[in-house]
Prior knowledge:
- The protein is of the alpha+beta class.
- The chain is 35% helix and 17% strand.
- Strand 2 (115-117) and strand 3 form a beta hairpin.
- Helix 1 (2-25) crosses helix 2 and helix 4 packs across helix 8 (162-172).
Amino acid sequence: MQDFLVGFQIKLYDYLLDTLQTFFRYPAHFLLRKLGRFQVLRNWVIYWRLHKRRSPDCVPLPDTTQTVQPVSSVVKPLQTRKAAVVLRRHGLLTGLQLGAAPLSALQTFARQTLCYGDRDPACPFNYGQHALAQTTYQRTFALANYPTVGQTSVLQQLRQDPTILEIAENYLQVPPVFVGSELWWSFAASTDPLTQCKAAQVFHCDIDDYRAIRFFFYLTDVDAHSGPHMYIQGSHRQKSWLHQLAGGRATEASLKVFYGDTAITTIHGPAGIGFAEDSFGYHMGQPPQTTDRLMLVMLFTMQDYGAHPGLRPLRSRPAQSTKPSPAAFLTSASIA
Length: 336
């Protein structure tokens, strides 16, 4: 019970701090997060933005009916116009594939670079030291991320990849704005509901913009026991009023009643496969049971609100222990 109260205190602190900072520093983003949950308002803002773009002073969107040529792409080409149609209808597009070179580069980066347990800047370790880190920090980590992945050359290539950009532009119907990226491990561990909620391992929707698209890539093999991603098709354009009022999260039971079991898609596959989704639809990553999962996500929106220096920036939290951080001996020189 004490652990639950401590965890609730941390989550409440994070929420209040984030809300206050957003209200004073990024008022437009604050309004988005409060009003963007309502489908009618989302549709109105999207219509207004597209109408404004189609005014005589604006340059029309390029014709992207042709398949992107693979010579300059690190992602398997798709018919981008058809991909946008699939995304508008279902909210989910599968069939992306990383090339061998970027896949290997990201896997090597993850092995050789410090990650941060539960995104806490006081808990750095190398992935090969995961067990040691949990013993040292006296914590069980549900995940660990790499805040510096955005500085890598492979990420710079991916964010400019023609397949990704054309899918994003055809879906958003405006030039896509790259907001941020995250590379993270989801660990096979026994976790409580609160920890799963903090790790996005329950169904939720993200209010990134009035229309937004995320690209995901598995960097490890993912089966039913290693945390597959789940998406509820159609939930990006149809929500009950109760779900809209709730803003982000909903119980799996209530979602199954509203959408039906057949709307839920679970994505398995080998390292390198990718998919895109409208992040306003309900989605989650299942908690891994036997094997850790490494995942990359990139977010593109219609507008830059200036509120995302990275998709998941590190931030300080109330200390759970007065024990000093032993990060000095956990260095990137120790490679698994």
